[in-house]
Design goal:
alpha/beta, six-stranded parallel β-sheet, two-stranded parallel ribbon, 10 strands, about 20% strand, globular, disordered C terminus
C-alpha cells in the first residue's frame, strides 16, 4: 500500500473529523501538496456525501472530478447510523473491495489521500469488524482528532491504548479548538496534558492545533457537527 494514504479518525462522532480533515488537507495544499479527501463510508445520505461537500467548501476547491466519479464517496447508505446497521437497513453489505479500488486510484492521482472514517475507532463496520481493524489491516498511518471538551482526555487515552495494542502508526494528532468556549481552562489544560502524554508514549507523533472557525466556515461546520452526531 502506498505510504501517501492516511486514515482520519477521532474520539467520537462529534470530534469535528470532517472539519479537521478538510482543514489539514487545505494546509498541505497551500504548501504545494496535491491532496484529496475521501469519506470511505457515508451514512445518512443518498447519492452523495455531505461530509465531502463540507470538505470541498472548506478546502475551497469546489466539486472535483473524483467526486463526480464516486471515488471520494465509494459507499453511501441512507440511514444515519453506524455502518454495520446502515448496511443491514439498506439490505446490502459494504463493498470493501470497491472502497479499496477507489482509495488506490486516488493515491495514484494525488500526493496525499485522507480517508475519513465514520465516528470513532471502535465503530463497527460489520458485526465482527471494527473501524480500527480496518486501519490496522490496511496499515494506514492514523491522523487522530481530539478536542478540549470535558471527557476528551479519557476518550483520547483509551484510543491511544487501542492504537498501540494493534500496532497502528499514530502519525498526527489534531487538537480541535472548535466549538468556541469562553472558559478555556479545561481546553488549555487538556491540550498540554495530551502533548505531554504524546511526548512520553508516542514521541514520533505530530501535534497540530486546529484553530477556531472563521465566520465564513462556521455555518458549514455547524452542519457538519449535526451530521456527525447521527453516525
Amino acid at each position: 500500500m502506498k505510504p501517501n494514504i492516511y486514515f482520519v479518525s477521532g474520539i467520537d462522532t462529534d470530534a469535528g473529523k470532517s472539519y479537521c480533515t478538510a482543514w489539514y488537507a487545505k494546509q498541505l495544499s497551500q504548501n504545494g501538496k496535491r491532496v484529496i479527501t475521501q469519506k470511505f463510508i457515508q451514512t445518512g445520505n443518498t447519492g452523495h456525501s455531505e461530509d465531502i461537500d463540507l470538505h470541498r467548501r472548506i478546502m475551497g476547491t469546489g466539486y472535483l472530478p473524483e467526486d463526480k466519479e464516486g471515488l471520494t464517496m465509494p459507499e453511501i447508505f441512507s440511514y444515519p447510523c453506524s455502518p454495520h446497521l446502515a448496511a443491514r437497513i439498506d439490505h446490502r453489505p459494504i463493498d470493501f473491495d470497491k472502497i479499496e479500488r477507489a482509495t488506490r486510484e486516488l493515491a495514484r492521482r494525488y500526493d496525499t489521500v485522507f480517508v475519513e472514517g465514520a465516528g470513532g475507532l471502535m465503530v463497527p463496520l460489520t458485526e465482527n469488524y471494527l473501524t480500527i481493524d480496518y486501519i490496522a489491516e490496511k496499515r494506514y498511518p492514523l491522523i487522530f482528532v481530539t478536542s478540549g471538551k470535558l471527557g476528551s482526555i479519557n476518550h483520547t487515552l483509551l484510543s491511544f491504548e487501542a492504537i498501540r495494542h494493534r500496532g497502528i502508526v499514530l502519525h498526527t494528532v489534531l487538537y480541535n479548538l472548535y466549538p468556541t468556549v469562553e472558559d478555556k481552562t479545561i481546553q488549555n489544560d487538556t491540550m498540554q496534558y495530551i502533548r505531554n502524554y504524546l511526548s512520553k508514549h508516542f514521541p514520533g507523533t505530530g501535534f497540530e492545533v486546529v484553530p477556531e472557525l472563521t465566520t465564513d466556515c462556521a455555518e458549514s461546520a455547524q452542519t457538519d457537527y449535526h451530521l456527525q452526531s447521527k453516525q
